[in-house]
Specification:
Length: 70
């Protein structure tokens, strides 16, 4: 399973919990893993870029670790 990344890495990269990642999968904010609990490198990058392009997703409610406002 070379070049595959666990869904936990999405949480680490974005500063969110695994529970949030699982909720986003369930609510189709992000796609389900490609193979078991793993994403291909290209899918992982597109998810990260897509979420970072939507800052309100990270700034709302409990996901405030990347909040740029002080």
């Amino acid at each position: 399973m070379a070049n595959l990344l666990k869904k936990e890495h999405i949480g680490e990269k974005l500063g969110i919990s695994l529970a949030t990642v699982n909720n986003w999968i369930k609510t189709q904010v992000i796609p389900p893993p490609d193979i078991l609990d793993h994403y291909s490198q290209s899918t992982f990058v597109s998810i990260i870029n897509g979420i970072k392009d939507e800052p309100s997703r990270l700034n709302s409610r409990a996901n405030r670790s990347l909040l740029e406002k002080k």
